C-alpha cells in the first residue's frame, strides 16, 4: 500500500498523523459529503492542473463560489 493511501486511511480512522495537517483531508471529506457537485469539480480541477492550469483555476473558482453562495 502506498504512503498516501495509508495516510488517508489513518486520517479517516482518526489516527494521529504527526507532521501532517489533518484539516485538509477533513475538509475534503466534508466537502464531498455536503457539496458533491463541488467535490466533483475539485477532483476534475486536480486532474487538469498540469496540462490545463487555466481550466483548473476556473473549475475551482466556480466550485468555491457555489459553496459560498
Topology:
Elements: H1 3-13, H2 23-34, H3 36-48, H4 53-68
Protein model, in words:
By secondary structure, the chain is mainly α. The protein has a domain at 34-69. The protein is built from 4 helices and no strands. The chain has helices at residues 3-13, 23-34, 36-48, 53-68. Helix 2 (23-34) packs across helix 3 (36-48) and helix 3 (36-48) packs antiparallel against helix 4. The longest helix has 16 residues, at 53-68. The protein is globular. The N and C termini lie far apart (39 Å). The model has no long low-confidence stretch (mean pLDDT 82).
> How confident overall, as mean pLDDT?
82
The coarse silhouette is globular
Number of strands: 0
What's the Cα radius of gyration? 14 Å
Detail the poorly predicted runs: none
Strand-and-helix sequence, N→C?
Answer: HHHH
Percent helix among the residues? over 70%
Major sheet attributes: none
Number of helices: 4
Distance between the termini: 39 Å
Amino acid at each position: 500500500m502506498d504512503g498516501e493511501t495509508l495516510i488517508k486511511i489513518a486520517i479517516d480512522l482518526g489516527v494521529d498523523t504527526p507532521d501532517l495537517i489533518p484539516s485538509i483531508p477533513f475538509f475534503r471529506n466534508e466537502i464531498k459529503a455536503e457539496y458533491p457537485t463541488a467535490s466533483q469539480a475539485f477532483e476534475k480541477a486536480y486532474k487538469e492542473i498540469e496540462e490545463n492550469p487555466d481550466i483548473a483555476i476556473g473549475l475551482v473558482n466556480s466550485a468555491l463560489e457555489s459553496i459560498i453562495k
